[in-house]
Every structure is written in structure tokens, then in C-alpha cells.
Amino acid sequence: MDAKQIRRLKPLLNRYLARFDDCFSRADTRAHLPVYVRGQLSDLPRKSVEPMALAAGVPPRTLQQFLSLLEWDRARMIDSLQRVVAQEHASAHSVGIIDETGCPKKGTKTPGVQRQYCGASGKIENCVITVHLGYAVDEFHCLLDSELYLPESWADDRQRCRDAGIPDSVVYRPKWRIALELLDRAKANGVAFAWLTFDEGYGGKPEFLREVHRRRQRYVAEVPSNFMGWLKPPRLAPRPRALRVDRPASSVADLARFSRKLRDKPWQRFRVKDGHKGPMVWEAKQVRLFPQTEEGDPGWPVHLVIARNVLDPDEIKYFISNAPPETSLATLLIVAFSRWHVERCFEDEKTELGFDHYEGRNYLGLLRHQAVTAVTHLFLARVREEWRGEKPGVHRLPNSHGSLRSGSILVAGPSPGSETAGPYGRDVDLPTTTECQGAPQPHEADTPALESLRHSLDRAATMSMESELEVAL
């Protein structure tokens, strides 16, 4: 980043934050927002209220009250952020990603904290869980919204909730219901998703899949290995209040192992990422599946995609999709492997912006901290996109009609004897290695944080601004 770009950041940030002015009824309250955002953009090792306030020369209590006591509209801030994305980052190739993240915490006072599985550490520990909706188009990504997951142990203890400032109207909801609320809100603000994707924690919930489909939203969902269905629809015989099937459903894992229709189907091979340990190559098969409903009957047919890691054949993933029958395997895999975008958002917000540094014990303060962090992150994503200096060029993700353009996925080549046509018709021409050098690459869990950005101008444009930038702002 050169000196001219550094000088440009301050007016860019001021103009951007002015878009959220109507969230504040008082000018003195509004003035705290840029202080907080600049603290998140600074090179402070800890970005909780106290060090950010001291670095800005203001009393820590001032920023604490900004989050938890002063009057301003956090919901309007999220609405404004989503409208910016809807109006200025819309694309026929957009992907929405639903995921959750955990933030380890000490003590028992942080809203929603309890011993539960924390994805950040990969183990059960004391943490809070938040559910998120992300947005991705090509290499642009951001978080649109988040909500605290309130465990039943908290919801059943209303006095504990009141002590943390949690309103009586906030009760326990399963994570998938929270995800639907986030999706509905974004759509109400004009955000359109060509595709939606999520992991098996959500894909394994039939109610969630049904509700997403009812909203006419196209999805690619990872499902657990015990997800049940039929490759050939069973015969049905009427009986009082139900239908009887002539044979039981099978798990997708058993179908992959024992179904002749699947066993005899050749694998198609795809290179989905060039990691620091070398290329990540997956091979996949695609068939039609009739999923078992909650009543035990066959539901509407969906795509079933079985993918396995070529270097570790024991690593197998299962995906289903309600996309049109003619949708190609390559298209479905691109959407399925787009979840790296939201993981990158979590990593960036935690390592660079202090997302998990909140130390308060107030529910409203926690939600406001997350909202401001999303605003800061969107600013960085927009700066990165602008300063990259690249024209949109090739779309790297499929649109809502399943159209896939070159550059979407890197093909290592089919397995011997594999077909060039998908089960529902001819696949689109897949790109060659040289055509795909700019394809988006899924995030790898063991890749060092922001490794690819630390030695490039991208990092200077999008992540923490270091000392020079702090002075400029």
C-alpha cells in the first residue's frame, strides 16, 4: 500500500460510516462509532473496549456505555448493512452461507455461555455460540447478520437472563430456526441468494430443509452419513392417516457402499484447491435421491452428491440439493465447497477485528459489538475489492439457473472410464488447469491465519492497518 492509498482511507471510511448515521438520534452518540471502528482497524493486540478506548484517548466507560447503555438502533444498522450489500454487491452468482462459530469465554456471566462444543477449538469447553449468515460473490465475502444461540439452561433461568439484560421475549430456539430468521431478514432487505449452502448441522434437519425449499431458495446442503432415502421410489400403499412403503429407506453411507447403481457409476475428479501441501483433489458421483420425510415417506427427489478426498479416501462428504435435475455435478460441487468464505470471515473478524474479544456481560452490548464488527468487516471487504484493481471478468460461481462459466472449478481430470455427461444430461464444458488459476480456493483449516495476505498489498488494504494506517485514520 502506498502513501496515496493510506491517505485515501480516512475519507473513504468517513463516507462509509455516514451511511449509518440514521442509526443514531444524537450526534454525541454517533461520534463513538468511528472511535470503535478505528480501534478495530488498529494494530492493537487486544481489541476489547479498554485498550481501544485508551488508545483513542477516551475513558473506557464511554465505549462501554456506547455498547450497552446509550440509545441507538442496532437493528437498523444491520438493515443498512444488508441494503448496501443488496444494492452494490448483487450478483446472479451469489452464495449465502449459514454457519455458526464459538468464542471461548471464562466465567458464567457472558450471555449464553456454557460448556458446549466450540468449533473454534474443536472441543467441548466454556463458550458462547452465535449463528451467522454470510454472503459471497467470487472473492468478495462478508457477514450479513448474527444472533446469539441461547441454550435451554439459560432460557429456563429467567432471572439469570434478566441479570444479563436478555429480554423475556428471547427464548430458546434451535440453531436452524435462528438461521431461518436471519435468512428471512436479509431477503426482506433485498438481498438475493442464487444459492444457499450449509453444513450437516443444518442439512441434517428435515424441518430446516423443508422451510428453505418452501421459500423457493435453491440450496446445496451437506448431510450426515445417516441421512435416509431411496434411489428408487418405493411403492406406496394407503393406510389410515399414513402411507406404507414396500421397503425401508437406506442411509446415504450404505447407498454409497452397497447400491449397485452408485457402485457402478464412475467417479469424476476435481481439483478444488491448491493448498500449501499441494492440490486438494476430490472425486464425486451424482444420483437422484428420494429423501425420507419425518413421516417415513419418500419426499420430492433431490440430487445426492457423494464426494471423497483422493488423498484420504476415508474422508467422504455427502450433499443433497433441490436444484433442477439438469444441474451439473461441477456446479453443485462449487456451491458445496463455497463454505470456506464464511470460515474466512470468522477468521478475519477474530484475528484482525476482535470479534471474540468482547468482555462485557450484557446481551445488548454483545449484539452491538457483533453488528459494529460486521460493519467494519464490510468496509474492509469493499476496500479490498476496490483496491484489487480487477474487473469482474469471469464469474467463478454458478448463477441461479445452474450456469457455470470457466474459472469456476479446477479439474484434475476424470477417473479412467468416467463419463463426460452427468446423470441428467451433458455437463457443461469444464475448464482446463490454465483457465482456472484465478478460481476461488476453499479455506483449509490448518492454513496459518491470513497466510496468503500477510505478504501482499491485499492484506494492507483489507486487514489491520498497522501503525501507518492508524496515524492516517
The largest sheet is: 12 strands, mixed
Number of strands: 16
Mean pLDDT: 83
Which spans of ≥5 residues are poorly predicted at pLDDT below 50? 390-469
What fraction of residues sit in β-strands? 15-25%
Helix fraction? Answer: 25-40%
Number of helical stretches of at least 4 residues: 18
Summarize the structure in words.
It contains 18 helices and 16 strands. It is an alpha+beta fold and 473 residues long. The protein has a domain at 3-207 and 341-392 and 452-472. The strands form 3 sheets. Strands 1, 2, 3, 4, 5, 6, 7, 10, 11, 12, 13 and 14 form a 12-stranded mixed beta sheet that branches. Helix 3 (32-41) crosses helix 16 (363-388), helix 4 (49-56) packs across helix 5 (60-68) and helix 6 (74-88) packs parallel to helix 16.
Secondary-structure map:
Layout: H1 3-18, H2 27-30, H3 32-41, H4 49-56, H5 60-68, H6 74-88, E1 95-104, E2 114-118, E3 123-137, E4 140-148, H7 152-155, H8 158-163, H9 175-188, E5 195-198, H10 200-203, H11 206-214, E6 219-223, E7 228-230, E8 236-239, E9 242-245, E10 250-251, H12 252-258, H13 260-263, E11 268-275, E12 278-291, E13 302-309, E14 316-321, H14 329-336, H15 340-352, H16 363-388, E15 421-422, E16 425-426, H17 457-462, H18 466-472
Key structural traits:
single chain, 473 residues, alpha+beta, 12-stranded mixed β-sheet, two-stranded antiparallel ribbon, globular
Briefly say what this structure is.
This protein is of the alpha+beta class and 473 residues long.
